[in-house]
Amino acid sequence: MDNIISKIIRTISDLSAEQISLMEVCGTHTMSIARSGIRIMMPEQLKLLSGPGCPVCVTAQETIDYAIKLAQDKNIIVVTFGDMVRVPGTVSSLERYAPRVVYSPLDALSIAEGNKSKDIVFIGVGFETTSPTIAATILAAETRGISNFYVLPAFKLIPPALDFIASSPRINVQGFILPGHVSAIIGTKPYEFLSKQHHMPACVTGFEPIDILRGILNLVKQLTDKKADITIEYSKVVKPEGNQKALEILYTVCEPCDANWRGIGLISKSGLAFKVRYRKYDALKRFSVEVPKSVIPKGCICGKVLLGISLPVECKLYGKKCTPLTPVGPCMVSSEGSCAAYYKYGCGLESYKKFQRERIRKKNGKKGHQETG
After folding, report:
1. Would 21 be classed as within a structural domain?
2. Among 65, 107, 184, 340, which residue has the least CB neighbours within 10 Å?
């Protein structure tokens, strides 16, 4: 295995003659790259960026504030996945109000069945991997006649976010490492615009280091050959057509809508709303509460980190005021956040030095400029 990995890395280095920036858009990839040290294995001319692949990190601040307001109502039980508990809102986090933590949205439905005198609100956070399971839970609530179960919709769709990134002049990306879990649901057709409209290659990979390295090699080869295909290096799980049953369930209950991504802003058709028939389960329609105006914490650059414009270690708060124990932004809270990955695995310093060397090289217009410190 070590020989195979070494060969892949050598081939990547041999082919990477020009500056290349690749972006992964999956929190599991982010953690795997950090844990295995893949980023610092790459040649200096190849930069790996972490994109908005953490669903908790991109959940709008007003959604957190809304959930906190609901949690203060004694007649409401707020239920959530564990990653959401410590995400900072404008004033505090949900942790202060002791929400119920579950592993499955069906657990939230069971809580509703066991507490019929209260309203149960499940925070519906997730990409295309998670949203079908929440849609299925809505259908189960309908079938079982459970009327005190609601979902706070905060769903996000990956392809519109990739289109936003590929279209932005601020973000320098030549190819995408596509998420394995999301792609298992949606397949590869929704990514074809990257090839057809933006002439950018993209590759679906698994989560082991060798899977990610094969994906990187695939993209580097495509760029070297001036190709722009959507490929799969995770064929044991991902099929071009995706999971049609999961998609059927999802789009029975939901339809695309514009969505606000924390630190990024509004992205057209990048979220999901409940269709008319299922809006009675929408917490936003059921509960009218006033929330404070969202204010980004001073000094926090999570938005730039989520778009790959800045590295976590470039934030003045990183590792000082902002740590996993005292998080300022969501990227340090989530187990899939870029800042948390850098902090946990100590990959920040080498990546930052590499980033700085590239900046100096670009500024001076010389490929072989020596490191200055």
Report:
1. yes
2. 107
Residues 108 and 219 in one domain: yes
User: Which token pair is 195?
Assistant: 């090839």
Q: Which domain holds residue 345?
A: 302-359
The whole-angstrom separation of Cα 338 and Cα 335 is 9
Domain membership flag for residue 368: no
pLDDT at 370: 43
| pTM score | 0.89
Joined tokens for residue 105 = 């949205």
Beta-sheet strand order (sheet of 230-232): 46-50, 20-24, 175-178, 202-204, 230-232
Quote the CA–CA distance of 172 and 309 in Å, as a whole number.
Answer: 8
Residue 165 has pLDDT above 90, yes or no: yes
User: What are 232-250's pLDDT values in tens digits?
Assistant: 999 999 999 999 999 999 9
Which of 259, 274, 298 is where one domain is finished?
Answer: 298
Q: Give the Cα separation of 34 and 86 in Å (integer).
A: 22
Radius of gyration of the chain (CA): 21
Q: Are residues 84 and 167 in the same domain?
A: yes
Q: Please, what's the b/e burial string for 43-61 (b: 16 or more CB within 10 A of its CB; e: otherwise)? A: bbbbbbbbbbbbbbbbbbb
Domain presence at residue 373: no
